[in-house]
Amino acid sequence: MRRALVLSLSLTALFLAGCPSKPKNGECKTSDDCKDQQGYGKVCVQGRCQECGADGDCKAGFVCRDSKCAPRPECESNADCPGGGQCQNGRCAAAQQPKSECDTDAQCGQGRACQNGRCVTSSDSGAASAAAIARCVGDENAVYFAFDKADVDEKARGTLEKVSSCLKSARGAKILVEGHCDERGTAEYNIQLGERRAEAVKKYLVNLGLDGNDVRTTSYGKEKPVCTEHNEGCWAKNRRGVVRPDAGGSPTSSLDALERQAAR
Q1: Contact yes or no for 193/181 (Cβ under 8 A)
Q2: Which ranges of the chain does DSSP label H, i.e. alpha helix?
Q3: β-strand pairing of 86-88 with 91-93
Q4: Where exactly does CATH 3.30.1330.60 map onto the chain?
Q5: pTM for this one?
């Protein structure tokens, strides 16, 4: 009897030894070992049950980071950001602008001037400023007026706001505002009307922040039409205010224009 009991216990021990216990406490050999373990991930990574081992283990829009699924970042390198942006902590940020060399002419020393944040020689500054002003003004940025009016309407205000913003980038820009009229009316009346139109444009630009000392005005009345047909479509093109670079000379005065028109 004792021999049979010993034999039975020996067989039981051998059976248990042949059937190892399942891994627990998050330990694993394969991902199958993780399926029934509560509170642990379902993917076996280096002997531990984790949430993920690769991006494919995560749902759409997520990636695997440190064995955890996390939202996919906006970028991983600067190449992922449009417009030269920089990738910072997974998000695209605007590229940092280089620090300006100067803010005022006084920071550049004698014979030099501050132009668009850089110190340049005075001659270079003048050339750059003239080029910058030319891009802001001219016939393509003319504003137009109703018949016998000098009011700056909504469309004209939009144009002048763009002109003003552009001119502010050209430090110390000096400009001349021309007032023009169509062919109807006397020469004397149109000279006065052109003056009012030029002054209206100047007033609006000054209200936008330009220095009034940098803005001069003149009137050409009906002396310089851009269209010579005798109809409303043509007259509308001639009722205009034009901003031009001020070369520093004396513009043709309203009186000069009036005298020339009277001599015709």
Answers
A1: yes
A2: 2-17, 122-136, 154-168, 187-207, 232-238, 254-263
A3: antiparallel
A4: 137-263
A5: 0.51
Structure tokens that stand for 133 in this block: 């002003």
* CA 221 – CA 240 distance, rounded (Å): 10
**Spatial CA neighbour of 150 closest among 195, 186, 183, 205:** 195
CA distance 156 to 146: 11
Contacts of 141 (CB under 8 A, 6+ apart): 159, 162, 163, 242, 243
How far does the chain reach from its first CA to its final CA, in angstroms? 148
**One-letter identity of residue 103:** D
| Alpha-carbon span 33 to 137, nearest angstrom | 76
Q: Which strands make up the sheet holding 143-144, listed edge to edge?
A: 143-144, 240-245, 175-180, 215-221
Amino acid at the residue 88: Q
Compute the distance between CA of residue 42 and CA of residue 53 in angstroms, rounded to an integer: 10
Nearest to 165 by CA among 126, 119, 132: 132
Q: Which of 154, 187, 176 is nearest to 245 (CA)?
A: 176
For residue 123, what are its two tokens?
A: 């001659």
- Residue 231, Cβ neighbours under 10 Å: how many? 8
Alpha-carbon gap, residue 248 to 210, rounded angstroms: 17
Q: Could you please state the CATH topology (level 3) that the domain comprising 137-263 is classified under.
A: 60s Ribosomal Protein L30; Chain: A; (3.30.1330)
Structure tokens at 100: 């300006």
- pLDDT tens for each residue of 123-180: 555 554 667 778 888 999 999 999 999 999 999 999 999 999 888 877 667 899 999 9
- The helix/strand/coil state of 219 is strand
Give the HSE-up count for residue 125: Cα atoms under 13 Å, Cβ half-sphere.
20
